Amino acid sequence: MVGRIAAADDHWNFATRCEGETEEAGLYGTFVGGASCSNDCAMAVGSTPERGQNRRMTQISPTRLHSPLDRLLVEAQRALDTVFGNPPAERPNPAADTPDVVLDPEQRRHAAGLMRINHVGEVCAQGLYFGQAAVARDVHTQHHLLEAAQEETDHLAWCADRLHELDSRPSLFNPVWYAGSYALGALAGLRGDDWSLGFVVETERQVEAHLDEHLETLPQNDKRSRAILRVMKIDEARHADQAEQAGARPLPAPIPSAMALASKLMKTVAYRL
């Protein structure tokens, strides 16, 4: 009996280590050829091969090792980190080597309003991607969404840093923006991965458009904000292109218009609050 308990403990510890390995690898593991984890980890938590069969890597869903309560806690932590936390960027701030300049009060107020809008945009992107990933049916689609979400975390951190430099703050309505975007992402994901990716394409194209608008209206001497927005625009375009290549479904005409209207409302409120 003692031997059985010890063996069970060993297997549990090994499986737990494997779960940690996938998360530490970034975004629940790196998927190569439709699988995640190392061979040993995959075989530890996957099915046991039948006698006479060769062992092979088992495809593992990023959430298969989590109970519903675990997943709920993960999503709650993501929401708290996005809305109230200060998640660190994995990449260097594009404005790090750009000297700051003194803006007059009106320029500073306008730049802060625009960067607050961009910060809200990243909060919404996090909510959308996490909502979609939570219900994604295909592991590769889920991985794509979580990978994009990580880059959006970089944008979130950069915008937050710039707001701090401008002596300003994020939007007071960030919890509302996140909750609405998460619900929209989950609803899109429930329609199917192609619909989910279609929302990614439309969202990123609209974000590209408003980044262009901000680059035109920012104070000309606010080079730090401009450096951040230029890199963000490149990332958003890549996310849209990748979603199209992954099989995004074009959205029916009323949906993009409704999204643009909601975005206009968000920008009007976030500029001031």
TrEMBL record:
> Which positions are annotated as binding Fe cation 2?
152, 204, 236, 239
Q: Where does Fe cation 1 bind?
A: 122, 152, 155, 236
Q: Which reaction does it catalyse?
A: a 5-methoxy-2-methyl-3-(all-trans-polyprenyl)benzene-1,4-diol + AH2 + O2 = a 3-demethylubiquinol + A + H2O
Please give the InterPro entries that the UniProt record associates with this protein: COQ7_proteobact (IPR047809), Ferritin-like (IPR012347), Ferritin-like_SF (IPR009078), Ubq_synth_Coq7 (IPR011566)
Out of the domains of life, which is the source?
A: Bacteria
An example of a GO molecular function for this protein is: 3-demethoxyubiquinol 3-hydroxylase activity
Instruction: State the Gene Ontology BP annotations.
Output: ubiquinone biosynthetic process
Cellular component, GO annotation: plasma membrane
Using the UniProt record, name the top-level EC class of this enzyme in a single word.
oxidoreductase
Q: How is the cofactor bound?
A: Binds 2 iron ions per subunit.
**What does the record give as the function of this protein?**
Catalyzes the hydroxylation of 2-nonaprenyl-3-methyl-6-methoxy-1,4-benzoquinol during ubiquinone biosynthesis.
Which NCBIfam families does the entry mention? DMQ_monoox_COQ7
Q: What protein family does this chain belong to?
A: Belongs to the COQ7 family.
> Per its record, how is this protein called by name?
3-demethoxyubiquinol 3-hydroxylase
What is the scientific name of the source organism? Xanthomonas campestris pv. phaseoli
Q: Which gene encodes it?
A: coq7
